[in-house]
Amino acid sequence: MKHRSTAMTVIVFSVLVLVTSSTRAVAAQIGPSQFEDPLVFDFSELDGGTHLGSGYANPYANAGVEFTGYIADYDYEDISGRHLASGFANSPAEPYVVRLRLLDDFAAKVGAYVWAGGSGDTWITAYDQDGLVIDTLAVDGYTCSFVGFESTVGRPISVVEWRGPTSSSFTTFPRVDNVMMEYVPEPATLSLLALGGLGALTRRRRG
To answer: CB of 69 within 8 A of CB of 62?
Structure first.
């Protein structure tokens, strides 16, 4: 995996967002068509019953991510075949939650199809590198939807959690599949974008 300069990425990403913050102040909800060249995790290469998370082997280390949950093999509308269920069967058990954690770099966009089991909402929350919430979105119970984030607040995404209602008897939900992720662009690319944005802002002020 090609590692990036994390500190520089965050700094330049912040500069770029400062330029555009007058029109976009919070994380944007996006669909699958708004990903340009994502990494896609469909879990099809893993055996059913595989446990993922702290203390377990990480088959996605080379991609720079770690998932928490276990691999189930059922069909739920747009979720078909092997997918990631909550870590109810893990030890220690983590019912009602599925998690994606970035190991080295940060993401600009993350999304997935999520099946929200139970009568309550499933909450999808993106966190920054300091563990602070960037934004939270909800999916109604018993529905399957694609939910994606694009970070636009100068705090690229470090962790995403899909969390179901703890009052539900569906301890293995939510379930996610076809997780899509795009890393924050290289610092050189961001620098060019930031300089272009600063130039546009200067021209507007002069006008």
So the answer is: no
CA dihedral (77, 40, 149, 91) in degrees, to 10, reads 80
Domains in the chain with CATH codes = 25-185 (2.60.120)
The DSSP letter of residue 178 is E
Q: Give dist(CA 83, CA 146) in Å, integer.
A: 14
Least confident segment among 36-40, 42-46, 78-82, 84-88: 78-82
Strand partners, 71: 84
CA proximity to 176, closest of 94, 111, 119: 111
22 has pLDDT over 50: no
pTM of the complete model:
0.79
Average pLDDT over residues 160-175: 89
Residue 59 one-letter amino acid: P
Q: What 3-state DSSP class applies to 205?
A: helix
Q: What percent of the chain has pLDDT over 70?
A: 76
The alpha carbon of residue 202 and the mean position of all alpha carbons in its chain are separated, in whole angstroms, by 34
Q: What is the pLDDT, as a whole number, of residue 77? A: 80
Catalogue the E-assigned strands of 26-102. Answer: 28-30, 39-41, 51-52, 65-73, 82-85, 97-102
Amino acid at 34: Q
Q: Using CA atoms, how far apart are residues 197 and 202, in angstroms rounded to an integer?
A: 9
